[in-house]
Amino acid sequence: GDVRIRCAECVEPFELCVQCFSVGASLNPHKPTHRYRVLDDLSFPIFSDDWGADEETRLLEALSSFGPGNWSEVAEHVGSKTKQQCYAHYVECYVDSVKRRRVEAGDDTDGDADGGDDDDMRPMTIEERKLADERDALAAANDPTSAAAAAAAAAPPPPPPRVAGNQQDITGYHARRSEFDTPHEPEAELPLAELELRADDTPAEKSRKLQMLRIYQKRLAERERR
Predict the structure, then answer these.
(1) What distance in Å separates the CA atoms of residue 183 and residue 221, rounded to the nearest whole number?
(2) What DSSP line would sit under 52-86, residue for residue?
(3) Between 20 and 30 A from 192 (CA), which of 32, 144, 150, 171?
(4) How far is CA 181 from CA 4, 187, 222, in A?
(5) In which residue ranges of the chain is CATH 1.10.10.60 found?
(6) Using CA atoms, how far apart are residues 107 and 93, in angstroms rounded to an integer?
(7) Which GO terms describe its cellular component (predicted)?
(8) Which whole number is the average pLDDT over 77-85?
(9) Strands 15-17, 45-48: parallel, antiparallel or unpaired by DSSP?
């Protein structure tokens, strides 16, 4: 293809053909002494910033010749990419982006018998993918369902249900011990539910609380014996 010379110093893109470059052509602000880059007409990116159009062409040629899956041969034909890079680029730009385009167009099926709309089958360009990413990010930020789902997932689990006395008799579930069997004197823990030993307890209070603990220990011993 045609080879172009691009100035590497001018703020605005400035390119010359080989003939003009060879005679030192200049056009303000470009100077013949500026550094430059040699470009061919297929080095610009289309679907990905790190893949030029010439590489895309060689990739499609290789896929046509060797088929998807023979990535070593494909990479050898492309010449400038590894087989892993060829595979990842093919999936991202020629498979996933086509599916994404069809979904955004309101068609998440595989198309009709003749392959569907040709435009729906075209990979998304760099600009189209950036716009789609921005739309997705905006939709996610404004989606109350998504925020509610995240909040629900982060919420702590509910406490175990409180079981009344008659329900406990029926089900055999003891909520304070999280057990289903009904042991000897199942209400033995109730007097201790609110028991708390404090440093400022009076001697009478300490004596009463210790007596409650001794009674509870006797009940536990009897429960264990049974």
Answers:
(1) 12
(2) EHHHHHHHHHHHHHH-TT-HHHHHHHH-SS-HHHH
(3) 171
(4) 87, 13, 16
(5) 45-108+119-134
(6) 18
(7) nucleus
(8) 90
(9) unpaired
